[in-house]
């Protein structure tokens, strides 16, 4: 297989929040892996920046531990040493003047310059203003911002306003790490690289689409944040919406940032409002050994949802009449994320109505393993008449691609795309706002009636009402973890 990796230019990447959890778990290990794969050009530098007073050696120790935690024993000591040699640190306060001159002195003309805002959004304005004040922003400087991008439409607009006051939209990279997943891009390859699917990709042939992002973890240490957010804001408004967009969008004219994002935006804008009876909210309950949601967020009267299932419609010619069912939750039976495109049954069975089969499904699995399966109908082997069965045509990446299946983590890919200046996999300002404009009325509706989420057993399939949401339509969810 010939490598078609697009090379990156030499860069200076400054990570504000360089000592934080995201830097430790994702950004630094991701950069190490790209470095080990030879994708970080010589002379590139990664500079951690946070308030903590630490010298360069202390930051290197932090980074080394981060890489070791992520990579385990398989690290090549020489590669790690070379990687640490490109790291630096500057103690800086986003809210004060401390450290900014020191950072300015470290900057070089020439390399690509990117600032990763791995800090809470309340610091974006101060960071942006000081970057300008210290003349650190060049026309091609890139700014990376993390989720959550706003709490609702109003706060998302305010954040966009803050960023656009200091940077051009072409410089802003809003991360939704689901877009960095290999299989999500494979969804586009499958849809737009094959003739096979496009003629069938519409309401005439597709019965419905299911999108599930199920987690086994509870809210963990993020209780305070999560209690103010909930599954709708934390998962549906961004990750599930992006998966829906890539499944439903029209073919863009080319695979370029604005062509792709224009088509995704059209999908969001075509989403019809969701009626209350088309949504189920849930909150995980106790098991013998585990706490319930309200214990975890330390709020005994919390009405925040840890689970959402909903049915929605994309109101356009392609999708009129084909529902999209979205479902996400914490403390569910398995960690299982997938998009399932369920085709309609054959209009007439020449083998008789009780012969079985006839259920085609395209399943795009994102977690725990990545892969694509197409369910087709064949004859049940053996004598005894014409009995049919549905079997998967499997494309598990690990098996099919062998050594080439070592796909980069989403963060690795996205950071390298920032350096390449490719915004295709990042959300645009209007896209984020349109997504909030659709989710806001749903959340406001709950708040208006003081809606109480339905309890569900930890490590289950979610509330019974979610099952009924599908059953009422004569359909059923694929079992989580099956
Ligand atoms: P975190 O662990 O709390 O780290 C925050 C970082 O910001 C620390 O390095 C902190 O270092 C620095 N910081 C705080 N105040 C500062 C200031 N005034 N000036 C300069 N630096 C300051 O948070 P995190 O989990 O890494 O998350 C960072 C951002 O990514 C948040 O917006 C979060 O919502 C988002 N995010 C995180 C994850 C994740 O898995 N962790 C996933 C998705 C999105 P000092 O205290 O030393 O200043």
Automatic annotation (TrEMBL):
GO cellular component: cytosol
Residues the record lists as binding substrate: 177, 181, 215, 234, 330
Record key words, sorted: Carbohydrate metabolism, Glucose metabolism, NADP, Oxidoreductase
Pathway terms, separated by semicolons: Carbohydrate degradation; pentose phosphate pathway; D-ribulose 5-phosphate from D-glucose 6-phosphate (oxidative stage): step 1/3
Active site: 239 (proton acceptor)
Superkingdom assignment: Bacteria
Domain Glucose-6-phosphate dehydrogenase NAD-binding: 14-186
NCBIfam families, sorted: zwf (TIGR00871)
Annotated family: Belongs to the glucose-6-phosphate dehydrogenase family.
Name recorded for this polypeptide: Glucose-6-phosphate 1-dehydrogenase
Source organism (scientific name): Cognatishimia maritima
Gene that encodes the chain: zwf
